[in-house]
Specification:
Blueprint lengths: L5 H12 L10 H13 L5 H27 L12 E5 L5 H8 L5 E2 L3 H5 L14 H12 L5 H6 L10 H4 L7 H6 L3 H9 L3 H15 L6 E5 L7 H7 L4 E6 L2 H19 L10 H16 L8 E5 H6 L1 H11 L6 H20 L14 H14 L7
Parallel strand pairs: 1-3, 1-4, 2-3, 4-5
Helix pairs in contact: 1-3, 2-10, 11-12, 14-18
Length: about 375
């Protein structure tokens, strides 16, 4: 396998776009560490290396193009991001389902996969639903393996689907995506030891870019990874509204580990044992959330959504969320959500099934309770064992 080269990648992106203003150099160090880790730690096979090179090329080109767009469209910098709603919580706790449901409200604006993957130029309302980048994105999802049945059963991907904030973070080259897709422990250390304030500031600039010519009343955003940097999120978005999803970690950890295993199968020959360090990492994220929630000024900024409640009556949970944050829920919005629920049930029943076994990942209930017992008690999380 030909080694990846970060300097060659930078030069290739500049050549492909004819641009050289990167909007700052803070991406260079994480790119260097990531590429070194891909070469020495990830054990990528030929296809995995080809996909990594292609994907990082697109990310770098997108960064260059967005920096140029900010000069072409000076009004982007004046865009206001007001009271965005963030869905957080443990991975596999129903965050994707709830996020997708909330985005059915026509008042809400969510970043779709195609506009995150190919953000330049800023999308326009007139062509938003038939932009040629939609087909380009769908084709790329197939090329990089994201339409594989194993992954689709876990987290459905599609060009027109809402996607997580960690995909927006890719423009900074600091994102949990890369530690999920590839075995890159040195890069993971850099990510969790670094200052994420520039990443959240770049995230805000990305939202300004996307809404400049196509806006909604409010942004509805999502990633479980926000838990690790929640204080930073609130520093950049001081008026953020936070929905925290809850589910028994005994169901979450093996499901999450199987998700990471599917990525490893796509890109490398490496098959790590155990739960990929997710017990410790997710427990740490929850502790950081609790530290924020324990501060009196933030108490009212959160509303809880338990997995069992969302599954039993999703619209009741939606109404509680809207009521908590003082948001209007017109009848047309509620009807759009209800219609989507019917379609989603049919698609889920017909789609691939996520099959996994906790024993395959060394998940022990005693170990789960050692890491998450305080969480289960604090939020009265229903056990699913």
């Amino acid at each position: 396998m030909t080694a990846l080269d970060d300097q060659a990648m930078i030069a290739d992106a500049e050549h492909a776009t004819g641009l050289a203003d990167w909007g700052g150099d803070d991406f260079r160090e994480p790119l260097r560490v990531l590429v070194a880790a891909l070469n020495s730690e990830a054990q990528l096979h030929e296809q995995g290396a080809r996909i990594a090179r292609r994907h990082l090329h697109d990310v770098l080109c997108g960064r260059l193009q967005m920096a140029a767009d900010r000069k072409r469209f000076p009004g982007i910098a004046d865009e206001k991001i007001s009271a965005p709603v963030f869905v957080i919580g443990l991975p596999r706790s129903g965050t994707t389902f709830l996020h997708n449901l909330l985005t059915q409200d026509p008042q809400n604006r969510a970043p779709l996969t195609w506009e995150i993957m190919f953000p330049s130029p800023p999308p326009e309302s007139a062509s938003y639903h038939d932009d040629p980048r939609i087909a380009q994105c769908q084709a790329k999802l197939g090329e990089i393996g994201f339409l594989d049945a194993g992954l689709q059963a876990i987290h459905p991907f599609g060009a027109r689907r809402p996607e997580e904030c960690n995909f927006i973070w890719e423009s900074t080259l600091r994102t949990v995506n890369y530690m999920a897709w590839w075995h890159v422990p040195s890069y993971t250390r850099l990510l969790y030891c670094g200052d994420m304030r520039p990443v959240y500031e770049a995230h805000k600039r990305f939202l300004q870019h996307l809404q400049h010519r196509h806006r909604g009343t409010r942004w509805v955003l999502k990633t479980p990874a926000h838990m690790a940097w929640l204080a930073t999120l609130l520093a950049v978005y001081p008026d953020a509204c936070l929905v925290q999803c809850h589910r028994d970690p005994a169901r979450i950890i093996p499901s999450l580990a199987n998700n990471l295993l599917q990525y490893r199968k796509l890109y490398s020959s490496l098959r790590p044992a155990g739960s990929f360090g997710m017990l410790e990492l997710q427990a740490s994220g929850l502790a950081r959330v609790d530290a924020v929630r324990d501060q009196p000024q933030y108490g009212s900024r959160f509303v809880d959504a338990h997995y069992s409640d969302v599954q039993a009556d999703p619209m009741a949970v939606v109404r509680r969320i809207y009521s908590h944050f003082g948001l209007p829920l017109p009848a047309a919005s509620a009807a759009a959500m209800q219609a989507w629920l019917g379609r989603d049930r049919g698609e889920h029943a017909a789609g691939p099934k996520h099959v996994y076994h906790g024993d395959d990942f060394g998940v022990d209930h005693a170990e789960i309770d050692r890491h998450f017992g305080a969480y289960l008690r604090r939020y009265n999380v229903e056990l699913e064992r």
